[in-house]
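During the no-cost extension, the postdoctoral fellow (Dr. R.K.) reprocessed legacy sequence entries with the updated structure-token encoder. One reprocessed record is reproduced below for audit purposes.
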Amino acid sequence: MIRSNEINTARVISPPRTKTIKVGIRTWDALKRKKGPNETFDDVILATLSEKTASIGDENANAIKYKRKTEFFDDYTYGEEIGFEYEYNDVKSNQSDFVLDLKIKKVFLKKSVLNPSEFFGVDNPHKHYSSFFLSIYLKAVALALEREFRAKFYAGKLEDYDNIASWRKLYYSYNLSEDSFRDDIETPLRLNEEEKPPKEWAIKVQASKAQMLINEYGKLFRTR
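Re-encoded structure tokens follow.
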């Protein structure tokens, strides 16, 4: 007599349903490089997808874990060439749903390589305590958006990046992410306007290399 569980075991398992997709040769080569000797391409693709999603709290919401891009630009606002290295999420394929999460990583001044705290007196989470830092950050955001989506922010001087109306127009014109506008633009500008730095942070900003540079430039400009 054959038991029911033996009947179930003996059933023929149908092969999984499949669909054909076309990928570029570079993507195909990348998948081949990632595929182990006992893995299928399904395994590689599913593993790659799982790397880009994460569960958040009890809501079980999906969050994209982006790779990070690193870029560089110069600024001459205060009469000295200053280089800034920054990084942000690689968001090219997510024009309407992304957050840049941009951070200034290094500052290059004369013979020194400095971190943001050494130059501005504050770190990235507190950039709104320094108007100079905030403007540099926003310039980096503009450069990242132009590089990723060809969204051009027109600014004649560094202070122009502080204009939230211009940012709103840019995001509307290029159908850019509302989350990015809120987190990358609106929140830092609002904090700069509303949140006054505590005394210890204000002292650090005033004693910073950035403020010394601003003061020296002001003296030079007044003597002309």
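Strands lie at 55-56, 61-62, 68-75, 82-89, 103-109, 112-114. The chain has a mean pLDDT of 83. The remaining legacy entries will be reprocessed before the final report is submitted.
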